[in-house]
Amino acid sequence: MVKVESIEKLPGVGAATAEKLIAAGFDSFISIAVSSPGEMVNVAGVTETTARKIIASARDSLEMGFETGEELLKKRDETIKITTGSKALDGILGGGVETGAITEMYGAYGSGKTSIAHQLSVTVQLPFDQGGAEGIAVWVDSEGTIRPEYLADLAKAKKLDPQEALKNFRGVRSFNSDHQMLLTENIGDLIKQGLPIRLIIMDSLMGHFRSDFSGRGQLADRQQKLNRHLHTLLKLAQTHKLAVYVTNQVMSKPDTFFGDPTEAIGGHVLAHASTYRVYLRRGKKGTRVAKLVDAPAMPDAEALFVVTSEGIKDV
Ligand SMILES: Nc1ncnc2c1ncn2[C@@H]1O[C@H](COP(=O)(O)OP(=O)(O)OP(=O)(O)O)[C@@H](O)[C@H]1O
Ligand SMILES: [Mg+2]
Questions:
Q1: 3-class secondary-structure state, position 313
Q2: Considering the entire predicted model, what is its pTM?
Q3: What's the CATH architecture for 75-314?
Q4: Which residue, by CA, sits nearest to atom 14 of ligand 1?
């Protein structure tokens, strides 16, 4: 990686363009390197040819080339796993909710998705050696289900000062899918202001998309927008080394004759974007069952956990 981060050093970027870029959040080589010419044209008012040149030179200066297996392994070591509070649940995720990736949990009403979000909002604040990421969570809330009192209880249970823990949390209510997308795009700004965001929560990811695009023939539009939204989230995850936890709703597969007919909504677009996909359901005696559905190099496995007033715990 280059040390000089002054974007004015990029060919085609004069003082005025630099100012516009910085104002729009493109204040580092990496943020420019991963942007699209269209975005550059919009925010900086340059021509598309110039935009392509700027992006290409930002990429060159970052040496975005192929890496050796050793380098890749080292990068993997830099990922942080945020504990869910349950060793069993962490186990099927390979240690916890991973930075640089999207973890999706889907399941029926009351299966534990929002409870896990509360738990992660607290555990993300813990020191690294306690399964935390020494950072804070930002929660984009489409359902109005954030419970600050519960966050305070969970903080106490983890021996954190509840007052401090609430200060180290940001929540915002979204009112439709466009608003949700806009809020998500603004998270980059919070990070630039110095907030140590290590976790983004989207609870639920699909709720607004589902109701805003409920008409017949709107599915293609919905998926296209969803794809853009997920791209924003992945970009945030990877550029800022933070974890993204999204919850999702379910539907019943109409053509299932055997087994569980429950399926996540969101189609291939979401299935493809989620690095970890976990199906939650109610188990025996108030337990919850988490099943890893789709993850790289991990066996499909199940874990049992419980939701308590002190958070997520092993059975
Ligand atoms: N303090 C608590 N003590 C014990 N159990 C709790 C507590 N808080 C929540 N629960 C359990 O968690 C369940 C709610 O789970 P949660 O809200 O996480 O579900 P969800 O998957 O987000 O559902 P939805 O699809 O409705 O959003 C409750 O039904 C209850 O069983
Ligand atoms: Mg919920």
A1: strand
A2: 0.80
A3: 3-Layer(aba) Sandwich (3.40)
A4: 110
